């Protein structure tokens, strides 16, 4: 049955040289025997090559257009005459065949040498003041440690691992494939030793041949002053043990700060509220208040208005990495206006109202007190 090379490449009969080349590259990547093991892929690849050989050469394409496949059958053994304009085979498959010989011999990584252990993550909750002032904290982490019985080799004491016979200790197996473009060697992980290059025949009974065991370890870590939600601490070499004598990974501790009923954090500042009487607001006073540093004296100026924010400098959060420098403590003043007063208090307030010339009576007291704070 005659073959239509245009149909094989999926292009129109008036396709130009660049369209033919692009179609060929796309299909060659898809059906190359080294990447497509489906039945019929090899024959399909040969058809694609033949179609490109004919259509990429103007004279052969002209004969095919006039006489069909019979017009170019005598040139079938001529070889791939126009491959130079493709920039060489490496241009077509360079990005796709990473891992084959050539570049593969340089970039493939042998797995039978030491390898670094995995990093671990631990989420740690801190009390509000621990986040501000830091300190030492004891934690417990489950991680993989080298087996003490076999010293990490995985072999039963008195024995040792032998080189894998499948890959001769390289951890890799190679498969050579011949194609119309030449021979290519595909490199893959050895299925027998899983890339280790060694096989343990008599496994250590303690770790079942793994060379590592899950253990829970106690650690003391230092929390710096000024940490906040999401701060990450790196504890070097406290992750999982490495394989085959490789270095351990690191431990990353993510910090989360618990809320406090009295204090709140705003960056490096701490905020709080205090409620005083209307007389204290009018006359001013000195109060002992709670701070993160303990009890401190706060001066309330006379005539303080509701929601006034008073500042105590350097009583906030230390700057992370510079604990000498601290934020401020910001106190919002709330004023307690009574809804009921005693007869004696009312008499005194009415006298004060007369002095100020304010009207009193039903609703008058509230209006009077409101006027005091507004004025």
Automatic annotation (TrEMBL):
Note the Pfam families from the entry.
DnaJ, DnaJ_C, DnaJ_CXXCXGXG
Q: Where are the CXXCXGXG motif repeats?
A: 147-154, 164-171, 190-197, 204-211
* Record key words, sorted: Chaperone, Cytoplasm, DNA replication, Metal-binding, Repeat, Stress response, Zinc, Zinc-finger
Output the GO biological process annotations, alphabetical, semicolon-separated.
DNA replication; protein refolding; response to heat
Task: Tell me the residue numbers annotated for binding Zn(2+) 2.
Answer: 164, 167, 190, 193
InterPro entries, A to Z: DnaJ, DnaJ_C, DnaJ_domain, HSP40/DnaJ_pept-bd, HSP_DnaJ_Cys-rich_dom, HSP_DnaJ_Cys-rich_dom_sf, J_dom_sf
**Cofactor note (record):** Binds 2 Zn(2+) ions per monomer.
Q: Which GO terms describe its cellular component?
A: cytoplasm
SUPFAM superfamilies listed in its UniProt record: Chaperone J-domain (SSF46565), DnaJ/Hsp40 cysteine-rich domain (SSF57938), HSP40/DnaJ peptide-binding domain (SSF49493)
Q: Where are the zinc fingers (CR-type)?
A: 134-216
Homology family: Belongs to the DnaJ family.
Q: What is this protein called?
A: Chaperone protein DnaJ
User: Gene encoding it?
Assistant: dnaJ
């Amino acid at each position: 049955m005659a073959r239509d090379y245009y149909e094989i490449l999926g292009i129109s009969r008036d396709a130009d040289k660049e369209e033919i080349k692009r179609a060929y590259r796309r299909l060659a990547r898809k059906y190359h025997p080294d990447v497509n093991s489906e039945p019929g892929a090899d024959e399909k690849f040969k058809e694609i090559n033949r179609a490109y050989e004919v259509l990429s050469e103007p004279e052969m394409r002209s004969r095919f257009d006039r006489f069909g496949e019979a017009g170019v059958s005598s040139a079938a053994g001529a070889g791939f005459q126009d491959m130079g304009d493709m920039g060489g085979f490496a241009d077509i498959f360079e990005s796709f065949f990473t891992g084959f010989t050539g570049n593969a011999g340089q970039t493939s990584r042998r797995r039978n040498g030491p390898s670094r252990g995995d990093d671990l993550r631990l989420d740690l909750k801190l009390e509000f003041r621990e986040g501000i002032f830091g300190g030492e904290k004891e934690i417990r982490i489950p991680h993989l440690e080298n087996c003490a019985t076999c010293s990490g080799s995985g072999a039963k004491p008195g024995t040792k691992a032998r080189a894998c016979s499948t890959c001769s200790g390289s951890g890799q197996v190679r498969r050579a494939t011949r194609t119309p473009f030449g021979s290519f060697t595909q490199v893959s992980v050895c299925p027998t030793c899983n890339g280790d290059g060694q096989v343990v025949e008599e496994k250590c009974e303690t770790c079942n041949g793994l060379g590592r065991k899950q253990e829970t370890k106690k650690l003391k870590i230092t929390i710096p002053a000024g940490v906040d939600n999401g701060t990450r601490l790196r504890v070097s070499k406290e992750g999982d043990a490495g394989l085959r004598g490789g270095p351990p990974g690191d431990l990353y501790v993510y910090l989360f700060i618990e809320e406090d009923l009295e204090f709140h954090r705003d960056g490096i500042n701490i905020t709080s509220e205090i409620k005083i009487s209307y007389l204290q607001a009018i006359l001013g006073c000195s109060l002992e208040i709670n701070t993160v540093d303990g009890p401190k004296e706060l001066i309330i100026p006379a005539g303080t208005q509701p929601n006034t924010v008073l500042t105590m400098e350097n009583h906030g959060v230390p700057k992370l990495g510079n604990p000498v420098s601290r934020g401020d403590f910001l106190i919002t003043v709330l004023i307690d206006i009574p809804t009921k007063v005693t007869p004696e208090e009312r008499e005194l307030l009415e006298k004060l109202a007369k002095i100020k010339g304010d009207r009193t009576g039903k609703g008058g007291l509230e209006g009077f007190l409101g006027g005091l704070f507004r004025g």
